[in-house]
Amino acid sequence: MKIEQFIRKLNNTELNSQSTNDAYIRVSKSIRERIPDEFFGMLDSKKIKILNRNTGKEVGNWVRYQYYPSNKEYRIVNLNSVYKSYKASPGDYVYIERIQNESEVYYEIYMKTYQKVCMKYSKSNEAFEILNEDEVIKIGMIEKGLNLQYRGEEINSKIVYSHLKKKRSDSPSKSTFYTIENLPNNFYDKIGKDHFVEIFQRGDRYFIDVMDSWSFNKFSK
Fold it and tell me: Would you state the torsion angle of the CA atoms of residues 74, 80, 81, 86, taken in this order, to the nearest 10 degrees?
C-alpha cells in the first residue's frame, strides 16, 4: 500500500468560522509547486472514492479541487461535513491521503484536533491575533501567568491584551491583538508569512513554538 499524505493546519477562514461561503483548504502556489499535480488533480468525489475516516463513510458533499478566477486561488472545497464531524477549531490539522492499494486508488480525509492557543503574528501591529479566541478565553489562558518552554529555555510569560484594529480598511470589524511577554528576539525571526504560533500543553508544562502551515509525505505500509 502506497500513501501520499498532505497535512494542512487550518485557519479560521478555511473553517468557515468567519461566515464565508464554504469550508475549504486554500492551496497556495508554494504547495502546488511541491506536490505532484495528480494528487490534487484526481481529488473529485464524483470521480473517485473519498472517505471521511471519522465516520467510515464517503463524504456527502461534492469535495473537489477547484480554481477560483475571481481571486486567482486554488481550493479543496466542500469540507463542511468533515470539519463538523470532528468539531474542528482553528489550528487543528486536516489530513488528506491518496492511497494506492494494488490497483485500487482512493482518498481518506481525517483530522487531528486538540486544545491549544493558535495565533498568527502581525508584523505591522507587533502583536498576535488569536484565531481560536473564544476557546482560549473559555479555558482561561488570557492574562494567566505561564512558564513557557521554548527549545530548552523556560520563559516566564503571559498573554496580554494589546489593542483592537481592523486588519484591512475594508474589514467588516476590528480584530483583537495580544502580546506575549518576554519572548526572545530570535523567536520573532523564525515567524514567516504562512507560519502559525502555538502554545500547547504536554503533561503539566506549556510549550510555545512556530508551526509550519502544511507538509507533504510519502510512505508505504
Answer: 100
